Amino acid sequence: MLNIYHIPDKTVIAQFPNVRDYSHPDTPVDMLQTYWELVFSGEDTLFEGRSVCPLDKETFDAEFFLTKIEFENHPAILASVRNISERKQAERALFNVNEELKVRTEEVQNQSRFLQDLMDTLPIPIFYKDIKGTYTGCNTEFERYNGKPRDQIIGRSVYELWPEPMAEIFYQADLQVFQTPHRQQYETTIRYHDGSVHDVIFYKAPIFTISNHVDGLIGTFLDITERKRAEEALKESESFNRGLIENLPDYIAVYGYDKKILYVNPALTTALGYSFEDLVSEPVFSYIGDEFRSKSEEVVSSRIEGRIPPVYEADILCRDHKRRSVIIKGTRIQYRQNPAILLLMSDITLRRQMEQALRENEEKFVSIFEKTPDPVLILDSSYQIIEVNRGFEKYFEYSHAEVHGKNVDDLGIRLHQEAIELLLNTSENNSHASLIEMELLKRTGSPFIAEVTISRIIINTESCFIIQIHDIDEIRKAHEAISQVNHKLKILSSVTRHDILNRIMVTSAYSGMLLEDVQDPDFQRKLNAIRQSSEEIRILIEFTGQYQNLGETTPTWQVLEGLFSFRAIQGLLSGIRLTLDLGGVEIYADNMLEKVIYNLVENSVRHGKNLTRISLSSHEESGTMMIWYEDDGGGIIPEEKEKAFEKGFGKNTGRGLFLIREILSITGITITENGIFGTGVRFEMVVPAGIWRFTSTNRIRSVE
Predict the structure, then answer these.
(1) Alpha-carbon span 16 to 52, nearest angstrom
(2) How many structural domains are present in the chain?
């Protein structure tokens, strides 16, 4: 009684002699009476229920064992009471885990159905196989090509679905994927279910398990029959074009990126009065009039750089010192497997054709302008409205007649001339579109948030503005709602975690107290198991607190050297030589990057043997920044190098390296361990282009 209810035996007899004093108020009297009668009838009874301490009224889950005995020559009941609150709590926790598992299982099933539906919507055949080469799934398009329903495909091998010669090719290709394993691409022929033979390209890739073992493959194929025919047609076309070019009245020339002539057609040689041999290998500018040479050089450079310069006029010089005025067009091509520029030089009378092309372009612009659902308006240089599209009329409920000729300030939609001028003036290049978010008003007076894009255009030589308005009000509201929900979930998670930790502390404390009082070795072993489980739960809960902060804030640029100045990291480095050879590299990463450095150093200190040195260095490779963290603490055995990043693996919490990889992956940074066991660890971080930059010229810094 003292251990369970904290009451001395004498007090029990004197103050709380009634069994009801120890029964929970909610326990029915008739149920107790039933148990009593069963015991007096000679049947031992074991049952669970709620009990209460008479002194402090504290309730707990209990297990009761009742048996009939003789006490002082009278029949009596011997009652044994055991506190099972911790077991009940564990059972409830297990129930919650099972419920969560059901939810996760349903999510996985839903995701599987979604992926299958997604594949079925794709217009290309997709299939996947297990490691034995047996089909385990496919999409609707694959069924159509094979001519069999899915239930007659799944579970079959290639030999059961395709003719023997093709099946052997497919089988050997699958083996190569399993044995390599790498992505695979190859061309072959395939017979469709209708008997027709087609040229196809197969694309296959291995499927890996979580432990990085090949578990099967996924593949698709593209029908290139038409492409093959097109290639044959292209060869015929090349022959045809050669004959066409040779007989065209227009002048054609090809020059390389070294700006020397590679080819001229007979029309051009005749016009200039030179032979083909005279012109080939000569600089292209040799035959351009002096006053046009600067413009021509600019245009040639633009074409080589991939830009598309406008059509321009120039004079070409003939052998007899006469000139011919031409309109020059150019485009990038491949000539004899090398990049080159093709020039088409037309007689000036062809200007009319260019004007017709311009009219066609104007018609395309008008079509796009009218069919764009977003409101679009065009202003002249004095900010008077020239044109609005149907999207504007529908959205703002103004007709073209109502707004034409008005100043943009007079519309009443909060789109002001001053804001337009400010945006254009602050733009880095006024020829590009400028984008800004602002609050505008509909004709009804209701406000909304919009993305406003402003560009300069030329209409009849006058500088004008085209403005596109895109309503993002609902998107903004949705983002704000999601942000609020995430904030509330974080608070709920924090409170729940705090409550769990408090209860774990109670469990650990009581286990410790019981260990001091209990002498039974078996019971002590069980109590130690409870304490160990409580400690493991505490570590898991604390880890969730760290993990929930991943991606909580926008990543920022951070200088790696600066992270080593934090007091927590400095405390770990006592007596260890630190060498930083990073050159002031700055990386774009989550704000928990400090935790990455701390966990790496802490991992070295905790697991390193005879650790004396830690170093960080960097090296750029083809735009990618390689960062290496190394120590001399012995390293990791080869078979555990990848496992070390798995959650739960390790001698301590098993989550340090897992958390490191998760933090870095937010901005696309990868980390692997490729050190030599017996020498030390070597963690290699690969930082993609655009995620790193240099901020100083420092190279090497050592810290003792």
Answers:
(1) 12
(2) 6
Domain that holds residue 341: 248-354
Distance CA 339, CA 646 (A): 49
Round to whole Å and give the CA distance between 418 and 523: 82
With tokens 């693996």, the residue in question is: 649
* 388 and 454 belong to one structural domain: yes
Measured in degrees and rounded to the nearest 5, phi and psi for residue 453 equal: -110, 130
d(CA 459, CA 463): 7
- The answer to whether residue 109 sits within a structural domain is no
User: Taking a C-beta distance cutoff of 8 angstroms, is the pair 396, 375 a contact?
Assistant: yes
Per-10-residue mean pLDDT for the chain, 704 residues long?
Answer: 70 75 81 84 86 84 86 84 85 85 83 84 91 92 89 92 88 92 90 86 92 92 88 80 80 90 90 90 87 85 82 85 86 88 78 69 80 88 89 88 88 82 64 74 86 85 87 79 66 67 76 79 81 68 59 80 85 88 89 86 87 92 92 90 78 68 89 92 93 65 42
Residues 6+ apart with CB under 8 A from 670: 661, 664, 685, 686
CA 534 to the chain's CA centroid: 36
In this structure, are strands 74-83 and 135-138 parallel, antiparallel, or unpaired? unpaired
* Burial zone of 595 (CB within 10 Å; 0-12 exposed, 13-18 middle, 19+ buried): buried
Q: What SS3 state is found at 312?
A: strand
42 and 161 part of one domain: no
Residue 359 belongs to some domain of the structure: no
pLDDT of residue 492: 64
Based on the domain organization, do 528 and 560 belong to the same domain? no
Task: Report the SS3 class of residue 441.
Answer: strand
Alpha carbon separation from 655 to 142, 532, 536, 673 (Å, rounded): 43, 18, 12, 16
Is-contact 644 636, C-beta < 8 A?
yes
| Nearest residue to 41 via CA among 19, 64, 67 | 67
Which residues, at least 6 apart from 324, have a Cβ–Cβ distance to it below 8 Å? 271, 315, 316, 318
Other C-beta atoms closer than 10 Å to the C-beta of 268 total 24
My answer on whether 275 and 385 are in the same domain is no
Q: What is the CATH number of the domain that holds 564?
A: 3.30.565.10
Q: What is the CB neighbour count within 10 angstroms for residue 220? A: 21
The torsion angles phi and psi of 166, rounded to 5 degrees, stand at: -65, -40
> Based on the domain organization, do 510 and 589 belong to the same domain?
no
Final residue before a domain boundary, out of 515, 530, 547: 547
Residue 158 belongs to domain with CATH number: 3.30.450.20
Residue 234 domain-assigned (yes or no): no
Residues 60 and 22 sit within 8 Å (Cβ to Cβ): no
Largest CA distance in the chain: 146
Asked whether the beta carbons of 390 and 376 are under 8 A apart, the reply is no
Contact 150, 158 (CB under 8 A): no
Task: Show which of 323, 354, 385 is a domain's final residue.
Answer: 354
Are 588 and 694 within one domain?
yes
Q: Are 467 and 495 members of one domain?
A: no
Q: Are residues 580 and 696 in the same domain?
A: yes
